[in-house]
Amino acid sequence: MAYDQDNIFAKILRGEIPVEKIYEDGFAVAFPDINPQAPTHVLIIPTGPYDSLDDFAKNGTVAEIAGFWRAVGAIGRQLGVSETGYRTLANTGPDAHQEVPHFHVHLFAGKKLGPMLAE
Ligand code: AMP
After folding, report:
1. For 43-96, what is each residue's pLDDT tens digit?
2. Best residue among 43, 97, 98, 104 to mutate for probing ligand 1, ranked by most atoms within 8 Å of CB
3. Which of 10, 28, 110, 113 is deepest in the core (most CB within 10 A)?
4. Residue 50 CB: number of other CB atoms within 10 A?
5. For 6-24, what is the mean pLDDT?
6. pLDDT of residue 112
7. pLDDT tens-digit profile of 34-43?
């Protein structure tokens, strides 16, 4: 699948849609989800044009993959939830209901998050 340069997260990366960036480095950008599902709900996206976790894992460079996951951990610590705990989730493809075709990791925290999957 060709990367869609007009997806909403590509526009956020280009600064065409404003968001409150809570973290940014050369590998990742993080901002609050517009429709939060937990007291803390942040989206973490790579700066490169990868449409899904599958694309990123297959085609990302080792530096991009390491840098991205380093950022995820740093964001958990920055948010102050690394001790109390948090959940990360990456919807990948239609069965997982991935809505935005730019790889993103959801970070949920701030309450007891319950079972991993809804019944
Ligand atoms: P997914 O279903 O995993 O693709 O999740 C996409 C997420 O992007 C949803 O949780 C949306 O609420 C979120 N979202 C869509 N547009 C924006 C936006 N402009 N700013 C922040 N979050 C957004």
Report:
1. 999 999 999 999 999 999 999 999 999 999 999 999 999 999 999 999 999 999
2. 43
3. 28
4. 22
5. 98
6. 95
7. 999 999 999 9
Question: Residue 15, SS3?
Answer: coil
Spell out the long-range contacts of 55-59 with Cβ–Cβ below 8 A and sequence spacing 24 or more. 55/1, 55/3, 55/103, 56/103
* Residue 95 amino acid letter: D
Give the E-state strand segments of 47-115 in sequence order.
Answer: 86-89, 105-109
- CA 71, 77, 83, 89 dihedral sign is negative
**How close is the Cα of 33 to the center of ligand 1, in Å?**
6
- Residue from 13, 70, 17, 19 nearest 45 by CA: 13
Residues having CB closer than 6 A to ligand 1 are 8, 17, 19, 31, 33-35, 43, 91, 97-100
Q: Ligand 1 centroid to 18 CA: how many Å? A: 13
Which residue's CA is the nearest one to ligand 1's atom 20?
Answer: 34
Residue 119 Cα to ligand 1 midpoint, Å, equals 22
